[in-house]
Amino acid sequence: MTAGAHHYAARLVWTGNLGGGTSDYASYGRRHRVLVAGKPDLVATADPAYRGEADTHNPEELFLAAIAGCHMLAYLALCARSGVRVLSYEDDVRGTLLVHPEGGGRFETVALHPRVGIDDPDKVALALRLHATAHDRCFIASSCRVPIRHDATVHAVGVPAA
Predict the structure, then answer these.
(1) What single-letter DSSP state applies at residue 4?
(2) What are φ and ψ of residue 77, in 5° steps?
(3) pLDDT, tens digit, for every residue of 146-156?
(4) Sheet harboring 105-112: ordered strands across?
(5) Tens of pLDDT along 51-60?
(6) Under CATH, what is the fold of the domain 59-156?
(7) What are phi and psi of 53, to 5 degrees?
(8) How far apart, in whole angstroms, are the C-alpha atoms of residue 112 and residue 68?
(9) 3-state SS class at 6
(10) 3-class SS at 98?
């Protein structure tokens, strides 16, 4: 692992000018593209509650996906280094966003619900404990003010879950 600073860059381009710019709240689209050099563009919009498109990713969903993805990657690395062979991993991440009446708001809670399948029933307890370490090592979670909890389940593949 390389110590020190790592630098990241992304570009955001609003594509929602429907001809009149932001002449009023209802007159413009919320669609935008996220561009990262050498990678496919990501199309995003606002949440439908804010005039976004229901079939397009929004920043709130991407925030949750970033937290869950970072946790998973930290967890898988810890498992590999600890001799826990992960065979499957799924997570249903949920978050609660509180909106202030005067505008703005913040996520109040984020909960990860990883379901992990491993190959050795004797390592289930270790695999469960590694979630706490993964949380501490996750770059995204360490950058957030919102409380993030993880309610993980681990089972040995072919062995009924406890």
Answers:
(1) S
(2) -65, -45
(3) 999 999 999 99
(4) 94-99, 105-112, 148-150
(5) 999 999 999 9
(6) GMP Synthetase; Chain A, domain 3 (3.30.300)
(7) -100, 125
(8) 7
(9) coil
(10) strand
Q: What are phi and psi of 139, to 5 degrees?
A: -60, -40
Q: Are strands 86-91 and 94-99 parallel, antiparallel or unpaired?
A: unpaired
Domain range summary for the chain, segments of one domain joined by +: 11-50, 59-156
pTM, full prediction? 0.89
For strand 32-35 and strand 42-44, is the pairing parallel, antiparallel, or unpaired? antiparallel
**With 80 as the cut, is the pLDDT of residue 161 above it?**
no
The pLDDT value given to residue 158: 74
**Helix residue ranges per DSSP H, the chain:** 59-82, 124-137, 139-142
d(CA 155, CA 162): 7
Which residue in the block uniquely carries the two structure tokens 């993805």? 69
Q: Give the C-alpha distances (Å, rounded to integers) separating 65 from 1, 16, 50, 131, 157.
A: 24, 24, 20, 17, 25
pLDDT digits (tens, 9 = 90+) for 88-108: 999 999 999 999 999 899 999
pLDDT band at 109 (very low <50, low <70, confident <90, very high): very high
Q: Which residue from 85, 67, 151 is spatially nearest to 122, judged by alpha carbons?
A: 85
